[in-house]
Design brief:
CATH class of the largest domain: Alpha Beta
Strand order of the largest sheet: 16-15-14-13-7-12-11-8-17
Number of helices: 15
Number of domains: 2
CATH architecture of the largest domain: 2-Layer Sandwich
Radius of gyration: 24 Å
Distance between the termini: 24 Å
CATH topology of the largest domain: Dihydrodipicolinate Reductase, domain 2
Bound molecules: 6-O-phosphono-beta-D-glucopyranose
Strand content: 15-25%
Largest sheet: 9 strands, mixed
CATH superfamily of the largest domain: Dihydrodipicolinate Reductase, domain 2
Number of strands: 17
Length: 519
């Protein structure tokens, strides 16, 4: 499939969000948690690749803040090593790196140490003067969530949060996920954060929203005329959202064992995907225009009742197995996990959106670790035509029409439909039309963090979760987990690593006369 570039109409001010220009003002990025994995694996690579693309402002600086003692030089050396290992573009361009490294600093301090925050403020003032970054600061909290409240408070106490009324400079704070552990803790965190920041200064990141293919869900639905008329329960039989991972949770067990798959993936990434798929077309693409519609979907999500959870949910945990020819241990065999841990690493759900558009169309969700392969995909299965004209004897059964949105790893969209197989007989076969990002556009997609950091620099919060989104998603999740807790009869299903998940999940769909798409 080839492509041509479609001219977009001149952006009007209401469409500042997704279509606005990428004018990034001079600014300093301050990363808390600068010695952690996220910085090394994703954040520094995002900054570097933005620099390669010429998307950073001329006046720009990065300050890494962490608890460990190290010099600016040592930090720069570690960041360069991280780039050599993890940047999507290799080899690293020395001239781009040198420019970036000139304004790369390290600040050592504890996250609860007032004095360290005062020193950071003084240092930022100096950097602003030297680098010409106009006192515009983006603080990125890539730390354990437990320190979010104190960092926010100390930033405020040290005078590092500028009032929104001050037009001459801005402060924004990016919060990594998870934002809370349940509704109560999320609300408490939100309260603390709102006591020092305005909502317009808060950027709750969900990296799924930065993925090209996830953004394309909106473009595919709303930038084309052909599918939107069919995008409802009259024509759609069911929607399946699959996020299968082959990786386990090695090295992250202390976090994961407290969270499990529902808090780790469903509350954030899955519900974001679901809202983009199900929302009404917004009247503008502004941050609030889009988020208002997403919130309506979350409000319409049917809460689980104790009776439903037995029929409509399956929780599972992986045992030892084989993936890609290698033997992998079971979840409970991992260091840091108790032998009898009941933390789910897999979940299958049947969800309902009780609104005009979606009443009667189930949304099936399946997410798991250590599955047979990595695959994130949405499959929209359409209802059969009203009359089975070709359903007489001797005609093969070809299956329903399916629109597949492949989010990763092989990014693209496919359409499966029936066609007449060549020959004298009326023989129908299932065929596919495929669009692949890689072949159609011939360029590699930017990483999610590149897009999201750039959006935060330019003050565009469209692809960040708003406070009411977080609140409503936790309400729904708490309800589900509450039902599980109160109902010992939802057993923890087992599945071997390297498989498609527990048999109970397949049974759940079979009861509805449907099947999961094969992985
Ligand atoms: C993270 C979860 O948010 O997303 C991880 O904490 C998960 O458990 C990861 O592996 C998946 O992200 P991606 O981009 O690899 O699909």
């Amino acid at each position: 499939m080839t492509h041509s570039t479609v001219e977009q109409p001149v952006a009007n001010p209401l469409m500042a969000g997704l279509e606005g220009s990428r004018d990034v003002p001079p600014c300093t990025l301050v990363i808390f948690g600068a010695t952690g994995d996220l910085t090394k694996h994703k954040l520094i690579g995002a900054v570097y690749n933005l620099a390669v693309d010429g998307l950073l402002p001329d006046h720009f600086a990065v300050v890494g803040a962490g608890r460990r003692e190290k010099s600016d030089e040592q930090f720069a050396k570690e960041m360069r090593e991280a780039l050599d290992e993890h940047s999507r573009r290799q080899p690293v361009d020395d001239s781009v790196w040198k420019r970036l490294a000139q304004n790369l600093h390290y600040h050592q301090g504890d996250y609860d140490d007032k004095e360290s925050f005062a020193k950071l403020r003084d240092r930022l003032e100096k950097i602003d003067e030297e680098a010409g970054t106009h006192s515009n600061h983006l603080f990125y909290l890539a730390t354990p969530p437990s320190v979010f409240p104190q960092v926010a408070k100390l930033l405020s106490e040290a005078g590092m949060i500028s009032p929104v009324s001050d037009d001459s400079r801005w402060t924004r704070v990016v919060f990594e996920k998870p934002f809370g552990h349940d509704l109560e803790s999320a609300q408490k965190l939100d309260e603390t954060v709102h006591s020092v920041l305005d909502e317009s200064q808060i950027y709750r990141i969900d990296h799924y929203l930065g993925k090209e293919t996830v953004q394309n869900i909106m473009v595919f639905r709303l930038g084309n005329g052909f599918f939107e008329p069919l995008w409802n329960s009259r024509y759609v039989d069911n929607v399946q959202i699959t996020v299968a991972e082959s990786v386990g949770v090695e090295g992250r067990t202390s976090y994961y064992d407290q969270s499990g798959v529902v808090r780790d993936m469903v509350q954030s990434h899955i519900l974001q995907l679901l809202t983009l798929l199900a929302m009404e077309p917004p009247s503008t693409l502004s941050a609030d225009g889009v988020r208002d519609e997403k919130v309506k979907v979350l409000r319409a999500l049917r809460p689980y009742e104790t009776d439903d959870v037995r029929r409509w949910t399956v929780r599972g945990q992986y045992d030892a197995g084989w993936i890609g020819g290698a033997q992998v241990p079971g979840y409970c065999e991992l260091d840091g996990v108790e032998d009898n841990s009941t933390t789910p690493t897999y979940v299958a759900l049947r969800a309902h959106i009780d609104n005009w558009r979606w009443a009667g169309t189930p949304f099936y969700i399946r997410v798991g670790k250590r599955m047979t392969r990595r695959l994130t995909e949405v499959a929209i299965t359409f209802k059969a035509p009203p009359l089975a004209l070709f359903g007489h004897a001797g005609v093969s059964h070809t299956g329903p029409n399916v629109l597949g949105i492949k989010i990763q790893p092989d990014e693209g969209i496919y359409l499966a439909f029936s066609a007449k197989a060549p020959g004298m007989k009326m023989h129908l076969d299932s065929v596919r039309m495929d669009f692949h990002y890689a072949t159609s556009f011939g360029v590699s997609s930017p990483e999610a963090y590149e897009r999201l950091i750039l959006d935060a620099f330019s003050g565009d919060a469209t692809l960040f979760a708003r406070t009411d989104e977080v609140d409503l998603s936790w309400r729904w999740i708490d309800q589900l987990l509450g039902c599980w807790d109160s109902d010992v009869r939802v057993p923890l299903a087992r599945y071997a690593a390297g498989t498609e998940g527990p048999a109970e999940a397949a049974q759940m769909l079979r009861r509805d006369g449907r099947e999961w798409r094969s992985l």
